[in-house]
Amino acid sequence: MTSTTPTTTPTSVDLPERKRNPFFRGPAGGRVLSAMMLPLFWLRPPAGFGVLTTTGRRTGKQRHKCIHVIRDGQRAFVVMIRPTPAAIASKRIAAWVLNTRANPDVRLRIAEGAFSGRARELSDPGEREAAVETYCRAVNPFDYVECVFHRGGLPSRAKIADLHRSWFEHGVALVIELEDV
């Protein structure tokens, strides 16, 4: 007797984040990975990635964070991801997001150059959906490496788009309105 199972596209529920990846298990993992990538990304960020510079909300010092960023004209979309169920449940917020809430004036260094901008969280449902589509549609070569880190297995465009969509579902999405430099 043969079973006919309908084929479905995997969702973020079907493809959980990797459990044994040290860079995504705890809150310090992302900071360690960002610090390791920062010197290279500062010199030449790969397409789809960049360095976000915020002003520390308590210290007033400049803080740099390597982030996944998709530019769409004079806007750039970034997402603070919450990779573990514990992080999602506790609603932990990354320091760079808290810094943008306290002072939304930021600098963004991406492959196209360095820009000043003003960051804000996406709250309008229509604007958020447009941002999700823009963010998920863009797949860059480095995204395949990122997908292996987060999901394991062989990466594909569909798997990458699903990963990015899950970040929007569980994370904090921001738009940076870029200023002409």
Describe the 3D structure.
There is one protein chain. This protein is of the alpha+beta class and 181 residues long. It has one domain (23-178): Electron Transport, Fmn-binding Protein, Chain A (Pnp Oxidase, Chain A, Roll), CATH 2.30.110.10. Helix content is 40%, strand content 25%. It has 7 helices and 6 strands. Strands 1-2-3-6-5-4 form a 6-stranded antiparallel barrel, surrounded by 4 helices. Helix 6 (141-151) packs across helix 7 (157-170). The radius of gyration is 17 Å and the shape is globular. The model is unreliable at 1-15 and 21-25 (pLDDT under 50).
Radius of gyration: 17 Å
- What is the N-to-C succession of helices and strands? HHEEEHHEEHHHE
Largest sheet: 6 strands, antiparallel, barrel
Helices, by number, come to 7
CATH architecture annotation: Roll
Low-confidence stretches: 1-15, 21-25
What distance separates the N and C termini?
A: 67 Å
Q: Give the strand line-up of the largest sheet.
A: 1-2-3-6-5-4
For the record, the count of structural domains works out to 1
In the CATH scheme, what's the topology name? Pnp Oxidase, Chain A
Strand composition percent: 25-35%
Name of the top-level CATH class:
Mainly Beta
CATH superfamily: Electron Transport, Fmn-binding Protein, Chain A
Write down how many β-strands occur, each being a DSSP E stretch of 2 or more residues: 6
Helix percent reads 40-55%
Overall average residue pLDDT: 81
Describe the global form.
Answer: globular
The class by helix and strand makeup works out as alpha+beta
